[in-house]
Specification:
The chain is of the alpha+beta class and about 400 residues long. It has helices spanning about 10-30, 45-55, 60-75, 85-100, 100-125, 130-215, 215-245, 265-270, 290-310, 350-360, and strands spanning about 275-280, 315-325, 325-335, 365-370, 375-385. A five-stranded mixed beta sheet has the order 1-2-3-5-4, covered by helices on one side.
């Protein structure tokens, strides 16, 4: 397969054209750099044309252009010499450091610096005149200066590229963090909405079904009273959630998150909805961290909601016990076929309870077990450690 030569960059074409035209102009007015050389007259045009041709490769093949340019510069010293040829060589040296390999960018300033020092010392030893220093200065201007400048510009360019890449990575990580934060906040809102409203809506669904299926005025009135009470409580809970979400809800007082202090009212409401519930509190529960208190309250609330929707006839027991550096929440409800109306479930409640427990680093279990050879119960057991992360303003773990 044939490989086509690299196409020169348009800027390289401009540099080569300007260098060639400038060299021709200097030759046209008879301005040369050397006198009494081996090749006089128009011979200086040969290195001039060759160096301008190498300028076309300064970006595509910088290593070859520098090696060939060094030979062309040496050949130029055999002629009257052209300032344009020398200037184009300095540009080739600069391009070799800028566009060459990283190793070349490191080595060129060192090697050209050593050549400059060696040239200066050599001519001083040969001529034994102060003018020999000028030869070293010229060598430094032609070789070391362009190489060092190219290496410096390359370092700045590489550093800028690294900073751009770091900025892009930082922006990507920030976007990932934002997406994760949005997802976590949506999950938190979903848990709060489910736990706050599901209990009331389940009671409304069950009692409305009973009112429609049992044609007794007293039963219907009792069901309607329960439906109204749960509707009002559910509306209040919804307003509380909206107050959390909106910055300008009009509320000037901070919204208090539920805690275990409200378990008595929660159990009493469950009894109003028709559940036979017993509550046992063991140990101090008034000084719990806000996230633990909120999680325990919501787990009990969701367990009672599930019992209202799915449990068979019997007593539901709620036990909250503080032992050492943890608190245990245990809810037992009758498990079996249900005779009365049943509210539909989606399984989101168990997921929410498991998520709340996991966020605090606790353990969660839920499932049927045998309380006796003839009795089965549905057990919910959550163990919540009291050593929790710093809570956020909403009462969730930070």
């Amino acid at each position: 397969m044939r490989l086509s030569p690299p196409r020169p960059h348009r800027d390289d074409v401009r540099i080569a054209a300007v260098g060639l035209l400038g060299g021709l102009a200097l030759w046209g007015i008879g301005l040369g750099m050397n006198t009494g050389r081996l090749l006089d007259g128009a011979w200086l045009l040969v290195p001039l044309v060759a160096m301008s041709a190498l300028e076309l490769l300064r970006r595509a093949r910088p290593r070859f252009a520098l090696a060939a340019g060094t030979l062309v510069l040496g050949a130029d010293q055999l002629t009257q010499g052209s300032l344009a040829t020398v200037l184009m060589f300095t540009d080739v040296m600069y391009a070799a450091a800028l566009y060459g390999t990283p190793a070349a960018a490191r080595r060129l300033p060192v090697s050209t610096g050593l050549i400059t020092v060696a040239t200066t010392l050599g001519f001083l030893a040969w001529w034994r005149q102060p003018e020999a220093v000028l030869v070293g200065v010229m060598t430094g201007l032609v070789a070391f200066g362009p190489a060092a400048t190219g290496a410096l510009v390359r370092n700045h360019r590489d550093r800028a590229a690294e900073e751009r890449l770091r900025a892009e990575q930082t922006a990507l990580l920030a976007e990932m963090d934002r997406a994760q934060a949005v997802t976590a906040e949506r999950a938190r809102m979903a848990r709060e909405l489910h736990d706050m409203v599901a209990n009331h809506l389940s009671a409304i669904a069950i009692h409305s079904t009973a009112a429609l299926s049992i044609d007794e005025p007293a039963t219907t009135r009792t069901a309607l009273e329960t439906i109204r009470e749960n509707s009002v409580d559910g509306l209040a809970e919804m307003r509380r959630l909206i107050g959390i979400l909106r910055d300008s809800s009009g509320d000037t007082e901070p919204v208090a998150a539920p805690s275990l202090d409200g378990l008595g009212a929660l159990v009493e409401q469950a009894r109003t909805n028709g559940l036979d519930v017993g509550l046992t509190l063991t140990g101090p529960t008034g000084d719990l961290p806000a996230p633990v208190g909120l999680a325990a309250y919501r787990i009990v609330q969701e367990s009672l909601t599930n019992a209202l929707k799915h449990a068979s006839t019997g007593r539901v027991t709620v036990a909250v016990e503080r032992t050492g550096e943890r608190i245990e929440v245990r809810v037992l409800s009758p498990y079996g076929d249900r005779d009365g109306p049943r509210a539909p479930g989606s399984g989101a409640g168990l997921v929410g309870m498991r998520e709340r427990t996991a966020l605090l680093g606790g353990a969660f279990e839920a499932g049927p077990e045998e309380a006796s050879p003839c009795t089965k119960v549905w057990r919910v057991l959550a163990t919540l450690p009291l050593d929790t992360p710093t809570p956020s303003p909403e009462g969730e773990p930070a």
